[in-house]
Amino acid sequence: MIVVRTIAELRAALAPRRNGTIGFVPTMGALHEGHATLLRAARAADDAVVMSIFVNPTQFNEQADLAAYPRTEAADLALAEAEGMDVVFAPDIAEMYPAGFATTVSVTGPIAETLEGAERGRGHFDGVATVVTKLLLAALPDRAYFGAKDAQQVAVIRRFVADLGLPVEIVVCPTSRDADGLARSSRNTRLSAEERTRALAIPRALEAVKDAAAEGVAHTGALRARAVAKLEAAGIRSEYLAFVDPETFAPAAVVEGPVLVAIAARVGTTRLIDNIVIGGA
Ligand code: AMP
Q1: pLDDT band at 280 (very low <50, low <70, confident <90, very high)
Q2: Does domain 2-173 sit in CATH 2.40.10.10?
Q3: CA dist., res. 148 & res. 37, Å (int)
């Protein structure tokens, strides 16, 4: 496995591998089993696999969150090697944002402006879209792998990849969960034992919605009430608990086709997100 720090080195490392397919997994490091599922999907499908580690400052709306974001590069490189990565791209901030940097890739409309976009501010998805565009142009992979856990991020990425005509296939991998149902996240390490137990109300709320929908409850207002009850029982008030079209993020009043149920909530000071899709074809 080769570790490179510059875009020039990345291109040089990938040049001899372009006779086969290249799979790319962008990450912010602090890798866990959820990331590993993406690495395995790439390893299984592509001839060469590259992972990036870059904690992108422009997508953080809170300086404290950026400062507290876990950084575990040595362990991340060991996991990348164990999962068979060929190349790891781990640039510093100046490599990604050289002096005078003045370009933003910005998706407009509900996909980027509601839910995470509303809570974290316009800059969040601008930061994501800009850095992912740069990473895709640096690696020029055949496929890039993202997690369904960040459903709105996936929708934003699909939108700008289509709009800009970037020649890459976006592959979405299912949310990886701990045995008790909590969605794996780098932020989970910040939860106390008591907070972690309370956080389980988030996947349980989503399960309650899924069960009620399966029983025939179609109005999202009624489904929402089931989820709120689970969250409130654990003393959790959501930042949002939304039922939307998974592609456009338009609100869904009734479950007629696939509906994304997305939750963001703080447990203690830690902000967690999770989602499921119900009503799928
Ligand atoms: P991050 O390092 O948090 O930016 O995540 C890097 C990639 O891993 C993103 O595409 C995430 O959606 C994905 N990811 C993070 N956690 C999970 C999870 N629990 N299950 C599936 N994918 C995940």
Answers
A1: confident
A2: no
A3: 11
Ligand 1 atom closest to 31 (CA): 2
CB 158 within 8 A of CB 113: no
Name the residue with tokens 């370009």.
Answer: 103
**Looking at ligand 1, which atom is closest to the CA of residue 153?**
12
Give φ, ψ of 178 to 5 degrees: -65, 165
Pocket of ligand 1 (CB under 6 A): 27-28, 34-35, 37-38, 146-147, 149-150, 173, 175-176, 183-186
Q: Where are the domains of the chain?
A: 2-173, 186-275
Q: Which of 24, 27, 54, 152 best tests ligand 1's pocket when mutated (most atoms within 8 Å of CB)?
A: 27
Going by their DSSP bridges, the two strands 22-27 and 2-4 should be labelled as unpaired
Q: Rounded CA gap, 108 and 112, in Å?
A: 6
Measured CA to CA, the distance from residue 110 to residue 26 in angstroms comes to 24
Instruction: Check residue 183 and report its DSSP letter.
Output: B
List pLDDT tens digits, range 68-114: 999 999 999 999 999 999 999 999 999 999 999 999 999 999 999 99
Domain 186-275: give its CATH architecture. 2-Layer Sandwich (3.30)
Element (H, E) at 238: strand 238-244
Catalytic residues, by residue number, are 35
Q: Tokens at residue 119, please? A: 């809570």
